[in-house]
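Following up on my earlier message about zinc ion. Here are the inputs again, as you asked, copied directly from the submission form:
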Amino acid sequence: MRRFVVFVFLSLLIPAFAAGQTPHRTAIRAGKVIDGKSDKPIENAVIVVEGDKIVSVSSGGSAPAGAEVIDLSKATVLPGFIDVHTHVLLQGDVTAAEYDEQLLKESIPYRAILAARNAQVALSHGFTAMRDLETEGAMYADVDVKTAIANGEVPGPRMQVATRAMTPTGMYPLLGYSWELKVPTGVQYVDGVDGARKTVREQVMYGADWIKYYSDRRYHFEADGVLHSMVNFTDEEAKAIVDEAHRIGKKVAAHAIGSDGIAAALRAGVDTIEHGDGLTNALMDEMVRKGVYWVPTLTVGLYVAPGRGGNWQKMADLQKENFAKAVQKGVKVALGTDAGGFDWKKVNQAKEFEYYVQYGMTPMQAIRTGTTVAAELLGWSDKAGTVETGKWADLVAVSGDPLKDITELQRVKFVMKGGAVYKNELH
Ligand SMILES: [Zn+2]
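Thanks, got it. Here's what our run produced:
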């Protein structure tokens, strides 16, 4: 396989060098650039792109001779957006029935076709990179979606994928069917320390960039006012998952909603806490100390609350309270939506930016959660997340000013990924 990849690269590169051609050059004139780094936008900038990379960003510069010019002089250009919590293989699951139906009635090939469609939707909304956090019963199909995008077969964001995720036996759907039936499971069941290590190895063998496990379930408020939960794995099992993943160079995301689940995940040494509704002051402090990221997924919480009833609205309210506290304490917040937990066609993932501003961030802080900070979480700080020389030419543009109206990010008019234009409504 490795040898094959090398041949492909050589065959692509040799003709260009042989003919002595310079790679394709594009100059983008931008009215403003929010580069993901500076506190203020750069006015009247010229961004020069060569091949798939940015080679210069200058204020008031001119386009180099021979470059193709893209005129975004009335628009604001930003780094491509990054969503670090998605499920391309899921189409919304407000109710358990909606979830079960997808796993029971849709084949994995059909789900993969929808996933390719979802990736295209995400890209058209300005998301040039995503961390897809498990396939919900579709085995390793996320690796195929990622590969098809990377090979240029279908349009979509750059992806890091988690494949199947893990819980101990019986702690994740599908559940409640006759024991006579062999039904699919939304995750891979894993038991014991050896089982944990083996599963990490297996998932990585089949292409997992991240390991994801479910730290808890059964979320409930107790008399202390704290959101509690039942922890899934023993500490020994969770530590084995994290240790094995780290040992072979992979990072770990933990679904953790209740305070008990969050505490267990932090004890195990995970890299990112997903959802985190039940965060307490002490847990936030621990996250700051350990440099663990929080991926709040507010969009899905607010989307499913009315349909699910029960505690879900109270949990969404708690997140609002915790969000402002976490920002104040300096918890690293990375933008994640749980897209797929809501219908990709109905809700634009960029809604998440709007919630962050509603809940207390400045627009600039919110923008960084889905660009700079998200790139750092992915380990791509040297390649993505800012508009800077040497980075991938992953850029979006909006016609208004997102620092005045954050909902502008839900109306992306221009998308470039790796120097290729996928959308331009700003002609
Ligand atoms: Zn999720």
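One observation from looking it over: The two ends are 42 Å apart (CA to CA). Hope that helps, and feel free to reply on this thread.
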